[in-house]
Amino acid sequence: MSTQSLYPVNADFAAGAKVNEEQYRRMYQESVVNPEGFWREHGQRISWFKDYTKIRKVSFDDHNLYIKWFYDGTLNASYNCLDRHLESRGDQPAIIWEGDDASEQLTLTYSQLHQQVCAFANALRGQGVQRGDVVTIYMPMVPEAAVAMLACARIGAIHSVIFGGFSPDSIASRIIDGKSKVVITADQGVRGGRIIPLKANVDAALDNPDVSTVERVICLKRTGGDIQWQQGRDIWWHELMAVSSPYCPAEEMGAEDPLFILYTSGSTGTPKGVLHSTGGYMVYASMTHEYVFDYRDGEIYWCTADVGWITGHSYMVYGPLANGATLLMHEGVPNWPSPARMGEIIDRHKVNIVYTAPTLIRALMAEGEAHFDGFDGSSLRVLGSVGEPINPEAWRWYYDVIGKEQHPIVDTWWQTETGGILISPLPGATDLKPGSATRPFFGVQPALVDNMGNLIDGPGEGNLVLLDSWPGQMRSVYGDHDRFVLTYFKTFRGMYFTGDGARRDEDGYYWITGRVDDVINVSGHRLGTAEVESALVAHPDVAEAAVVGYPHDIKGQGIYAYVTLNKGTEETEALRQTLRQWVRSEIGALATPDLIQWAPGLPKTRSGKIMRRFLRKIAANEVGSLGDSSTLADPTVIDSLIEARLNRT
Ligand code: ATP
Ligand code: MG
């Protein structure tokens, strides 16, 4: 594996790219010097029923906060994703679907998708759903998930998608928060060969006496498995569709009308119901999709995220469909039934752009490269990463093994709250540095501040904030505007606080160092978790690592590392010493882990992010007060980590 640290833009790529370096600089400059003019022009990339004349109205003052974009325009998100393509690309595939079992394949053209959305939109209306109502969607990764979302958008209902892996309690709390009258689900889902009892989970959620608003459960038949049925409340998707007219004009929505609510991943605490509005979001999601992936007409684009996450909203449904792309949607997980699945899917469908998460890359790495021996990969052009900092070692593996040392990687930093990508390379413009999300997208003004809120100039490290709004920004926490103001605008006056820390290097590139809550302070020196973890992951025996601080008498905080080894590597005391030395030589004595616990698994959110807050508690020996674990993918991991903890006092 190479240790190269700079990957200059490929000249051939740049020649055919949407944007090269010179254009990036010019457009970025214009976007911050003259945001009104810049967005007046780029707002035209989507179709408006009534064009806007007002561009933006923004104040980040926590006593008088407002964020509005294109706010006298009207439009419809589903019209933008469907109707406007019918003439030019009605017969082009909009969604190519591959089942968990690869023998199941399905293609929907733009006109077929349009018909289904219209019919389902009418069905929703028939069930009493009105403009402004919140509809809960708890679906597997099937085209009907996108149909349900777009049908809501078509009639002006607000969707709230819940990831299909969540438990009845998590569903219940989100339904209560959104006061949904209608829930859309399926009998069962299939993921990695396992059956997920979706309808049974909804039934259990609705048994909760605090859930009192739901009148209707619409159920898609996916597997035909046994389920309970409540007459009068439950109704089959196909029965509704059979009698529904496929003609449904799209509702004219104001730019600032809500499009959806989506709860954050819950890495740091209780999930927040992030509210996104229509106009700015559509402009921003489609524009970032086009420029960040250098998307070209006719390309096949595969995003491995579930629709239940923001990535699944902005870069599987709204952004790519607004751009008329062909999406590949996969029902299962890309490393099942074996790690070779990822390469097989790319080759089978001739995928041009793939967008995935570091957790998957690390999982594939740990299994060894042999699974990619037969992988061709010649259709690929751009690779993307999102969700966590990507360790340089994982970046290089992605670049070498999946990208065959040819294709740019866009490491995209953003949040549920931001609606779209804020910091990322543009593949034809940006020289790449593994582990750095590099530079801001057009209109985005990141900055670093110290803990007092003072701006840090030039190279340095601090809290990552945004000084001005961008069209895709969230507008509120659903039902709790005070929490919105408090969470994002009170820490540093007049700025949006991301909760993340970052370093800016001499080229102005940003390196996300991790969440600010996770920063470790060793003998007065601040260390980002990402740096120490990346050093550990760079060791050939290490698959994954999570690092936290714990109370240490002399240093203030000591470094506690949880390490998952590659398949087949033995957990020995000698290796522990080797790893300590390794980190010492990679970063410095200060970063040497005090304690290393072998961790066969790490606690992760359902979207695959490491949840360090649990690890912090275990390291501090405070195992009695772990807090909300409802967003954990596998709660049993915690018990085994507690069992084997090292810092018993
Ligand atoms: P919660 O806000 O509920 O604690 P969460 O922050 O994990 O959960 P998301 O909105 O899904 O919820 O994730 C956004 C966060 O993910 C970012 O704030 C950042 O910490 C991390 N992240 C996303 N992409 C990247 C990236 N490319 N590099 C580094 N970190 C990233
Ligand atoms: Mg967050």
Automatic annotation (TrEMBL):
<dbReference type="GO" id="GO:0016208">
    <property type="term" value="F:AMP binding"/>
</dbReference>
<dbReference type="GO" id="GO:0005524">
    <property type="term" value="F:ATP binding"/>
</dbReference>
<dbReference type="Pfam" id="PF00501">
    <property type="entry name" value="AMP-binding"/>
</dbReference>
<feature type="domain" description="AMP-binding enzyme C-terminal">
    <location>
        <begin position="531"/>
        <end position="609"/>
    </location>
</feature>
<protein>
    <recommendedName>
        <fullName>Acetyl-coenzyme A synthetase</fullName>
        <ecNumber>6.2.1.1</ecNumber>
    </recommendedName>
</protein>
<keyword id="KW-0067">ATP-binding</keyword>
<dbReference type="GO" id="GO:0046872">
    <property type="term" value="F:metal ion binding"/>
</dbReference>
<keyword id="KW-0436">Ligase</keyword>
<feature type="binding site">
    <location>
        <position position="584"/>
    </location>
    <ligand>
        <name>CoA</name>
    </ligand>
</feature>
<feature type="binding site">
    <location>
        <position position="526"/>
    </location>
    <ligand>
        <name>ATP</name>
    </ligand>
</feature>
<feature type="binding site">
    <location>
        <begin position="191"/>
        <end position="194"/>
    </location>
    <ligand>
        <name>CoA</name>
    </ligand>
</feature>
<comment type="similarity">
    <text>Belongs to the ATP-dependent AMP-binding enzyme family.</text>
</comment>
<dbReference type="InterPro" id="IPR045851">
    <property type="entry name" value="AMP-bd_C_sf"/>
</dbReference>
<dbReference type="InterPro" id="IPR000873">
    <property type="entry name" value="AMP-dep_synth/lig_dom"/>
</dbReference>
<keyword id="KW-0547">Nucleotide-binding</keyword>
<feature type="binding site">
    <location>
        <position position="311"/>
    </location>
    <ligand>
        <name>CoA</name>
    </ligand>
</feature>
<feature type="modified residue" description="N6-acetyllysine">
    <location>
        <position position="609"/>
    </location>
</feature>
<dbReference type="GO" id="GO:0005829">
    <property type="term" value="C:cytosol"/>
</dbReference>
<feature type="binding site">
    <location>
        <begin position="411"/>
        <end position="416"/>
    </location>
    <ligand>
        <name>ATP</name>
    </ligand>
</feature>
<dbReference type="InterPro" id="IPR032387">
    <property type="entry name" value="ACAS_N"/>
</dbReference>
<feature type="binding site">
    <location>
        <position position="515"/>
    </location>
    <ligand>
        <name>ATP</name>
    </ligand>
</feature>
<dbReference type="Pfam" id="PF16177">
    <property type="entry name" value="ACAS_N"/>
</dbReference>
<feature type="binding site">
    <location>
        <position position="500"/>
    </location>
    <ligand>
        <name>ATP</name>
    </ligand>
</feature>
<keyword id="KW-0479">Metal-binding</keyword>
<feature type="binding site">
    <location>
        <position position="335"/>
    </location>
    <ligand>
        <name>CoA</name>
    </ligand>
</feature>
<keyword id="KW-0007">Acetylation</keyword>
<dbReference type="InterPro" id="IPR025110">
    <property type="entry name" value="AMP-bd_C"/>
</dbReference>
<dbReference type="InterPro" id="IPR020845">
    <property type="entry name" value="AMP-binding_CS"/>
</dbReference>
<feature type="domain" description="AMP-dependent synthetase/ligase">
    <location>
        <begin position="83"/>
        <end position="464"/>
    </location>
</feature>
<feature type="binding site">
    <location>
        <position position="542"/>
    </location>
    <ligand>
        <name>Mg(2+)</name>
    </ligand>
</feature>
<dbReference type="InterPro" id="IPR011904">
    <property type="entry name" value="Ac_CoA_lig"/>
</dbReference>
<feature type="binding site">
    <location>
        <position position="539"/>
    </location>
    <ligand>
        <name>Mg(2+)</name>
    </ligand>
</feature>
<dbReference type="GO" id="GO:0003987">
    <property type="term" value="F:acetate-CoA ligase activity"/>
</dbReference>
<feature type="domain" description="Acetyl-coenzyme A synthetase N-terminal">
    <location>
        <begin position="24"/>
        <end position="81"/>
    </location>
</feature>
<comment type="function">
    <text>Catalyzes the conversion of acetate into acetyl-CoA (AcCoA), an essential intermediate at the junction of anabolic and catabolic pathways. AcsA undergoes a two-step reaction. In the first half reaction, AcsA combines acetate with ATP to form acetyl-adenylate (AcAMP) intermediate. In the second half reaction, it can then transfer the acetyl group from AcAMP to the sulfhydryl group of CoA, forming the product AcCoA.</text>
</comment>
<dbReference type="Pfam" id="PF13193">
    <property type="entry name" value="AMP-binding_C"/>
</dbReference>
<feature type="binding site">
    <location>
        <position position="537"/>
    </location>
    <ligand>
        <name>Mg(2+)</name>
    </ligand>
</feature>
<feature type="binding site">
    <location>
        <position position="523"/>
    </location>
    <ligand>
        <name>CoA</name>
    </ligand>
</feature>
<keyword id="KW-0460">Magnesium</keyword>
<feature type="binding site">
    <location>
        <begin position="387"/>
        <end position="389"/>
    </location>
    <ligand>
        <name>ATP</name>
    </ligand>
</feature>
<dbReference type="InterPro" id="IPR042099">
    <property type="entry name" value="ANL_N_sf"/>
</dbReference>
<dbReference type="GO" id="GO:0019427">
    <property type="term" value="P:acetyl-CoA biosynthetic process from acetate"/>
</dbReference>
